[in-house]
């Protein structure tokens, strides 16, 4: 069980398409333990495996309302509401940066639990946003890809600071 270094914007691993997980043995359990320890340390709401340098389709997300930690493997969005909501969104890979991002208000996600059980979850509001954000990480998509040119310009200096100290 280890707290891992969070990969920041500019790291190659954040742009890769992660691979499906096919076995639920010790290696997968270790990834989830590392994700959990690292998330607890940082106080974030969600963390995807690529953010700790692991290019596999796994993420965790904390549901504040239900005080529940979801651990998902090979997640797929099977439904997203047409209704969208704009909110400020951050990412542990972009410390201290926030972008206004429009996301569906509710989603249904299917996948597997960390122990390999099939699961389908309906999420709304902040949890839906978190699921969508983490699933994008598994395809190499980052919050900056949603940002307007004005937002990118506003944050340029901070973005440069982040990318300049990236350890690959
Ligand atoms: Zn993120």
Under CATH at level 1, the class stands as: Alpha Beta
Task: State the separation between the terminal residues, measured CA to CA.
Answer: 22 Å
Secondary-structure class:
alpha+beta
**Overall radius of gyration:** 15 Å
Which runs of at least 5 residues are low in confidence (pLDDT < 50)?
none
Tell me the helix content: 25-40%
Give the names of the bound compounds: zinc ion
Question: Count the strands?
Answer: 7
CATH topology: Peptide Deformylase
Strand-residue proportion: 25-35%
Strand-and-helix sequence, N→C? Answer: HEEEEEEEHHH
* CATH architecture identity: Alpha-Beta Complex
Strand order of the largest sheet: 1-2-3-6-7
Q: State the domain count.
A: 1
Q: Identify the quaternary structure here.
A: single chain
Largest pleated sheet: 5 strands, antiparallel
Can you tell me the CATH superfamily? Peptide deformylase
Number of helices: 4
Structure commentary:
The protein is an alpha+beta fold. It has one domain: Peptide Deformylase (Alpha-Beta Complex), CATH 3.90.45.10. The chain has four helices and seven strands. It has helices spanning 26-42, 125-138, 149-154, 156-164; strands spanning 46-48, 58-63, 68-80, 84-89, 99-104, 106-112, 118-124. The strands form two sheets. Strands 1-2-3-6-7 form a five-stranded antiparallel beta sheet, with helices on both faces. The longest helix is centred in the N-terminal third of the chain and has 17 residues, at 26-42. The two termini are 22 Å apart. The mean pLDDT is 96.
């Amino acid at each position: 069980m280890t707290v891992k270094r969070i990969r920041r914007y500019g790291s190659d691993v954040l742009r890769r398409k992660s691979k499906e997980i096919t076995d639920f043995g010790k290696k997968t359990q270790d990834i989830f333990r590392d994700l959990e320890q690292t998330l607890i340390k940082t106080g974030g709401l969600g963390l995807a495996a690529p953010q700790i340098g692991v290019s596999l389709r796994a993420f965790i997300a904390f549901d504040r309302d239900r005080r529940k930690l979801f651990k998902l493997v090979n997640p797929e969005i099977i439904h997203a509401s047409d209704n969208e909501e704009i909110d400020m969104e951050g990412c542990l890979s972009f410390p201290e940066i926030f972008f206004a991002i429009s996301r569906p208000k509710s989603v249904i996600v299917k996948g597997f639990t960390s122990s390999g059980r099939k699961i389908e979850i309906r999420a709304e509001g902040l949890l839906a946003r978190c699921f969508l954000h983490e699933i994008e990480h598994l395809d190499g998509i980052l919050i900056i890809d949603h940002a307007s040119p004005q937002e990118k310009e506003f944050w340029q200096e901070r973005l440069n600071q982040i990318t300049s100290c990236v350890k690959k």
